Structures are given as C-alpha cells and as structure tokens.
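As noted in the main text, all predictions were made from sequence alone. Below is one such record, for Tfp pilus assembly protein PilX.
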Amino acid sequence: MPDCGRRRKLHKKEGGYALLIVMLALILISMFAVTFYTTSASHRLQQQQVESSTLSVGAAEMGVQRVHYELKNRILTAYGNTTDETQIDIHHLKEKMKEYALRGQKVTALCNGNLQEWADCEADMINERMKRQFIENVRNSLATYFIADNRAFSVDSDVEYRISDHMLHLDKKEGEIKVEYSIVGKEEEKEKELKGVLSLRIPEFISSDDNDREGVITGRVDPDKSNEAIFYPTTFTFEQARACPSNPGDLNEIHCFWTEKGKYEGDTSLFENWLSLVPEIKKDKVKVISDDICGAFSHNGNNCNNNWDFGGLSVYARIGSEKYANVNNPVNGALYVNGVVNAGNMNNADNFMLVARGIDVGNINGSINRLTLVLLGTGEPNALNWDSLALKGNSRACINISGAEDEINNKSITIDSGSLLTFYSETIEPKTLQGGKERYTNDYGEFLNACGLKGVRGAENYTIKGMNEGQLDLQTDVIY
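Prediction:
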C-alpha cells in the first residue's frame, strides 16, 4: 500500500507540469500572432512609401531627360543660325579681300599689315563676334523655353513633374556655358527634386588652324581672279553703290555713281570740278563709277575728245566697252574699262593709267609722259589693235598676249625711255629682249606688279568648322 500512493502523487505531480507547459505554449502563440500582424502592416506601409518615392524620382528623371532634349535642340538651332551668319560675314570678307588685294597695305579700324595678316585679323574678329552672337542666341532661346517656370507635365493621372527653377551661367574664361535647372517629380503627395546641369563649350566658328587658311596669299597669282578683282567695281548695280554726293567733302563711301551728263562750269565739266574737290586723304580709296564716260567729261554736250582731268582718282566705266572719238591728253588718274576701248587716237598723256581688256585705236603717240597702259586680254581675236604705240617719258605697257601672239607681231611699238612687259600663259622662262626694254613672263603676279597692280593669289580658303554636337561638348549631369 505505501508504494502505490507515491506514484500517483508522482503522477499527479507530473500531470501539473504538463498543464503549465500547455498554458505557456498558448501564451507564446498569441504573442507571435500579434507580432506577425504588426510587422506585416509595417512592411506594407514601408513598401508603399518606397514605391511612392521611386515613382517621384522616376518622374523627376523623366523631366530631366525631356528638358535636356529640348535645350539640346534649341542650342543646336542657335549654333546653326550663328554658323549661317558666319558664312555671310566670310563672304563679305572675301569680297573685301578682292579689293584690298589691289593695295599693298591693308588697314581697317583694328587690322592692318599684309594681306595674310589683315585677313587673319579680320577672320579672328568675325570669330569672336560670332561667339558673342551664339551666346546671345542661346540666352534668348532658353529664355523663351523657361518663360513658364512652374508648368507641369503629366506622366499619367497620378504622376507628374515640373520645372521649379533655372539659371544660366557663363564662364568666358573657361569658354563654357552652364544651364542649371531643378525638376520636381510628384506622385500623389510625395515629391522628389532633382537638379540637372547642362554644360557646353562655346565653339569656334572659324578655324584658327593655319592649314585651314592657307591659299590666301600662297601659290601663283590667279589671272581670272585677279582680273575679276581689278574690274569688279564695273559690275556694280545702282543698288550696290550710292550716287556721288554733290559736295565731295560729304563722300563717305568707297564707291559712288556719277550720274550727271553734259554739265559743265566754264571750260571744265562738272565731273572734273567735282573730282578735283575730293579730299586728298580719300583719293586713294574712292572709286567713281559712270555709265557714260564721254557724257561725264563732256564740256558742251558733244565734246569729249580731249583734256580729261581725273583729279588723281580712279574712274570705272560700268558699260563693258567704250567708244570715243578721241582720248587726247588724259591726265592725273586712271580709267578702268572691262572691255575694249575704241577710239580714234590717244595722243598726249601725262600721269595717266588706262586699264582695259583690249584697245582698238589709231595712234598712241605725241607728248607721252608717265603713261601706264595695261591690257589684260579678252580671249577673243582683234582685241589688241593699234597703228602705232610709243612708250616714252618713263611710260610702261603691260600686255597679255596669250592667244593673241600673232596679232601683235606686226604692230608698231616704239620703246624710248619706257618699258614693255608681255604675258604668255604657256609655261616658259621669263626672258628679256631689246636690252631690257621688252620682256615677257608667264608669272601673272610679276606681270601685274610691273604696271602697279596687285594680283589675287589662289582661293580665299577660310574654313568654318561644321556644326556637330561633339564640338559643343554638350552633356547633362543629374544631381540627386
């Protein structure tokens, strides 16, 4: 009996431990369930916040991409417009080169020196001016884009972005433009701001590489380009040059048209009186153009045979070829005719230059003193025709006989205290004949220089750098 009671108790005691274990297990399960529910709810909230933040960042990134695309296109358009303006200025520079190639010293407001130095200086000035113009074009274009600072762009019904701020920085020292802008991306109530920094180089519009400019004064003188430059005022229209002012002191143009005909004051034509009153400082620069040389020099409406006084100026006949009864005793100046001069005689001349394609005259003789006769050729037969030509009194003649060699074989040319240089286009060595009084050459530059004219050497080869995004170094950085 005593042994049977200890085991129950034992059993009873063992049964009490089991109940305690069950109760503890139930408590732990309840706590775990509450914790799991709370953790799950917190995770869902965090997930929603992450998704919202990601969408707002994505919207802001889309905004940066869109603004970069828009600004890039506007900048490239501004670059293209500035390049077009540069081409116009380069064309004008080449036109000026044709004129200045006829003079030894090239002087403008800020540039001087020989043709190469002058042209380089002018090109550099154009380049700097176009850089400033490009900056202004960019500034104006971006201002119109950012004019509505807070406009919004919807990505979908719940997500959008907007431009909140912008600023343009210009660093001339570093040659760089920076455009800073802020983009706010929004998803419901969540916002994210990103900053975009678009940077680009201020480009060159005319290459400074010597290889891009060679040919300005290198190589042999080009006959066609030289002749074009020598005669180019004769091709002017009335839209390209103004009428000569009645008071020569008011003359500010390099070229002007003389339109009066048959007017005179006493024994002198109105034209000659006007020429004599042009200020001395302007006489080397001014070129006067006339449709009717005979009418301009006429004393009484029909007499233009003699005594043409050019007053130290150069006069250009706009009509291709001119026909005069006689051209006797022209003095003190130059007459340019882009064609053949047809006249009875040209007896007597003093300090006078005639530049023409060809002549058809009787005699060039008499009291000839310091006459310069330049015949540049027409390429047509019968353009070099005269009965007698006397070069005396330190006179000189430069005649292009290419293609017309046979025409002058039987022409009478007397050289007495004068000189004659003829030009052949064939490849030959320059030779001197008749004791140095007569020479021929195949160097057109030497040919022109011998009679005081300047040639144009080769093509004016100024290269404009092409438009490309690489040259602009255009890129955008995003700051998160």
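The first strand starts at residue 152 and ends at 154. The first helix runs from residue 2 to 100. These features were considered when defining construct boundaries for the mutagenesis experiments described in Section 2.9.
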